[in-house]
Amino acid sequence: MPAKILSGTEISAEVRRELKEKVEKLKAKGLTPGLAMVRVGEDPASVSYMKQKGKTSEEVGIYSETIVFPGDTSEEVLLAKIAELNKDPKFHGTLVQLPLPRHINQDRVINAIDPIKDADCFHPVNVGKLLIGDPYLLPCTPHGVQQILIRSGYSPEGKHVVICGRSNLNGKPLFAILIQKKTGANATVTVCHTGTKNLHEITRSADILVAAMGSPKFIKADMVKEGAVVVDIGVNRIQDPTTKSGFRLVGDTDFEALKEKVEAITPVPGGVGPMTVTMLMWNTIRAAEVQTGITAE
Questions:
Q1: Which residues fall within 8 angstroms of residue 154, CB to CB, at 6 or more apart?
Q2: What is the DSSP letter of 101?
Q3: Does the annotation mark 147 as catalytic?
Q4: Largest CB tally within 10 Å, which of 80, 120, 188, 191?
Q5: In this structure, is residue 127 part of a structural domain?
Q6: Cα–Cα distance measured from residue 280 to residue 169, given in angstroms and rounded to the nearest whole number
Q7: Residue 169 maps to a domain
Q8: Could you report the average pLDDT of every consecutive run of 10 residues in the chain (297 residues)?
Q9: In terms of DSSP H, where are the helices of 89-178?
Q10: Distance between CA atoms of 267 and 233, rounded to whole angstroms?
């Protein structure tokens, strides 16, 4: 029997409806959550992502501004802008779109954002709070993965979750979220990477398998057990002469093969991707509540 498709598109729409209601309640109390988004250069993917973030902000009622600098902007100018945004009370969340041009030190930029306004949850202070189980905000993609599982009826609690990939963006923070002794987490988590031996053996032991390596169709059907739940974070562009654009997007799993074996799986596109932007909105609203002491309750 074919797997249940875990639609991030549908789940993110559900979350956005909830967030919109929350923002309406906050506005009735005089609070409009604000998000500042900074981009350096005209990287096509970054331009597209920023447009989607702006569109979603408008949908849920968040005030947002997109600040664009030329690609040759100096690091000093960018840091000065971040310092300005840190002090601007109309913005409760700030993000700088990555990747940055090579001449700008990404770590210095991330560290310059006030942790209380760190909408992406990249700042070391927020990463540390997440790891010790006292998070302020949550990294958007890992939080989106958790929400997909919970809202689809596949809570990680008591399950063996195997994460393939150890990036600071996805693998490590997802581990930090799911290992906590909390509702919607409390899982036994194994993180696999390029140095992992007996990878097939480990992935086949997973109740929930998360693919986050950035390698097209890497996870094959013989790497998962019958009835597993698979979440595919990967987004890879591969050539496809049958499409108008000449390419298509695929995940890190062999979706067509896996969907005949597993219980549930996220598609690419339309799986985790839509959740990432939605959870950014969640962070912005949460930050606004904490900074002002005004809540929607």
A1: 208, 229, 264
A2: P
A3: no
A4: 120
A5: no
A6: 14
A7: yes
A8: 94 98 98 98 94 97 98 98 98 97 97 98 98 97 98 98 97 98 98 96 98 96 98 92 88 96 97 97 98 95
A9: 106-112, 124-131, 140-151, 171-178
A10: 9
Output the pLDDT for position 11. 98
Residue 51 neighbours by CB under 8 Å, 6+ apart: none
Q: Is residue 131 in a domain?
A: no
pLDDT of the residue at 255: 97
Terminal Cα-to-Cα distance of the chain (whole angstroms): 43
Please give the residue range of the domain that contains residue 77.
Answer: 30-114
Instruction: State CA 227 to chain mean position distance.
Output: 25
Whether 97 is catalytic: yes
For CA atoms 258, 259, 260, 263, give the dihedral sign.
positive
DSSP state of 221: G
Q: Are 85 and 94 in contact (CB under 8 A)?
A: yes
pLDDT score, position 97:
97
Catalytic residue check, 120: yes
Catalytic residue among 97, 117, 232, 259: 97
- Residue 86: CATH number of its domain: 3.40.50.10860
- The answer as to whether 8 is a domain residue is no
pLDDT of amino acid 1: 76
Exactly one of 22, 53, 159, 259 is catalytic; which is it? 53
Quickly list DSSP for 45-94: HHHHHHHHHHHHHHHHT-EEEEEEE-TT--HHHHHHHHHHHHH-TT-SEE
Number of domains in the chain: 2
- Strand 63-69 and strand 34-40: the pairing is parallel
Q: How far is CA 247 from CA 157, 160, 162, in A?
A: 38, 35, 30
Please report the pLDDT score of residue 240 as a whole number: 86
Exactly one of 22, 117, 118, 120 is catalytic; name it. Answer: 120
Distance CA 183, CA 206 (A): 20
